[in-house]
Amino acid sequence: MKAAVLYGKEDVRLEQKPVPEPGPGEVLVRIQAALTCGTDLKVFRNGGHAKMLKVPALFGHEFGGLIEKTGPGITAWRPGQRVVAANSAPCRSCFTCRRGQPNLCEDLLFVNGAYAEFLLLPARIVKENLLEIPKNLSFQAAALTEPLACVLRGVQAVNPKKNETVLILGAGPVGLMFVQLAAKAGARVIVLGKGAKRLEAALRSGAEMILDLATLSDPASAIRKVTPQSKGPDIVIEAVGRPQAWEQAVSVVRPGGRILLFGGCPADTQVSFDTRRIHYDELSILSVFHHTPEAIRQSLALLADGSIRSDLLITRESPLDDLPAILRGMLTDQDAVKTAILP
Length: 343
Ligand SMILES: [Zn+2]
Ligand SMILES: [Zn+2]
Prior knowledge:
CATH architecture of the largest domain: Alpha-Beta Complex
Shape: globular
Structural class: alpha/beta
CATH superfamily of the largest domain: Medium-chain alcohol dehydrogenases, catalytic domain
Number of domains: 2
Helix content: 25-40%
Bound molecules: zinc ion
Low-confidence stretches: none
Largest sheet: 7 strands, mixed
Number of strands: 18
Radius of gyration: 20 Å
Order of helices and strands: EEEHEEEEHEEHEHHEHEHEHEHEHEHEHE
């Protein structure tokens, strides 16, 4: 089979690999669509990831496909079924799993290798996080299940209400998913970001207003100006993953407001917050990481009931051979959203 292998910094190659044979409890999936993702771009740029994979490694983790073959002991699945899976599964027995936080599992098992013709799913992922794609949902749209599950947990944490002002920092795929969910909750959504096409997509996703970073000399005052009585947004959702964005989120929210720090920052970075602001303005600072099997199921249900417009998130289709060029392009393209890679 053809598969993308990550060797190091900005070094991904397409190679011929033997088609894996499913062992006990395992399932082999024939990939129909895989999606590019900001996390993959980060891994591509850095040449690896402490938790997710060690190079050289098969690469890619958002996909939809058909079951090709099942391993010994599998009775719930059969070849030909349309499926999607999360990119990880918790152990269910460690300290955090036992405390009901499987997203923080100390032994989270990851699977990578969706940029390929076939992907072998380990038994634990088959058991915890393999789901059938509902009939009305395309493989590409179903592949959004995993990133949307992470975003969904973020939305549940800050719980935007009707008519609240929600500022979203960042207009990448994650920012755009937040726009759709916050708008759906009836909030008034403002997006601060860059890239004309992404910002235009934010408007079509339900944002009431966009602020283009490229044209603002003082983003903080521009944000306040468009909120009731210039007090700042009720909620700020940070979807950038840079310390400066975290600090900005805390500085612009209104007194009594809520902040979601969603984007993971580079390793060994620090932020500095004004203690007076946090205490006397009673700010609620929240953060979420990854997804749970429950959120994965809720996410797929949202996609299936048509609540999420996948066409605003997946803007291109490309063959697997083009993957290295697409990832290189994403390093500098401020307008890239998600590309569906079709093997
Ligand atoms: Zn992802
Ligand atoms: Zn665990």
